[in-house]
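Notes from the 1:1 (GR / supervisor)

We went over the backlog. Supervisor wanted to see one worked example end to end before approving the batch request, so GR pasted a single chain during the call. The sequence is below; no edits were made to it. Supervisor asked that the structure be written out right there so they could see what the output format looks like.
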Amino acid sequence: LLWECVKKNNSFMRKSKNMPTMSAEAGNLIGVHSAKFSGLANSKAVGLSTQTTGPKQTIILTLKNPRSSRAFRPKARLMTVGIKKNAKKGTAQLEKKLAEGFYRPDLLPLVKAKYAKIHMSFKKKKATAHSRRAPAAKEPGMQPARDTCLSDCATSPWACARHLRSTGGGSNGGAMRE
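Structure output shown during the call:
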């Protein structure tokens, strides 16, 4: 009955052309406006998000409060639980809360996938220090430099800088030699 009341119009709906209707409600796991993921209409809502406090970032699991008396109090309706950042411990904690506790085992694969994405977003890209003296490291997938000119160099002398230097062409009148 509650979903029938909120499915047509509510303050959390985000509509746009040529896109599915999205939802910004707390407790909606993937943000899609549907009965399965609704944080308002389901008696067992699940949400996974991040919280930043200063330089620290934490992963927060949002669940509906198990006490039925809290259902009509907006601030106390949802309960938040901190999830560990260690991948093994975090997924084990999610499994314990959702599958083993019979809370929402149908959403467990989606929660694990979102946890993995959030966990990857916390990793910062390492800055590599490049030395001016050492030769540049070869990137994976690049071909090594060739000692000889390419085959089309013979037909087009302007195609290869090496050929240009060896023939004496260029702006400095053949001063560059190998």
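Supervisor's comment: The first helix runs from residue 2 to 6.
Batch request approved.
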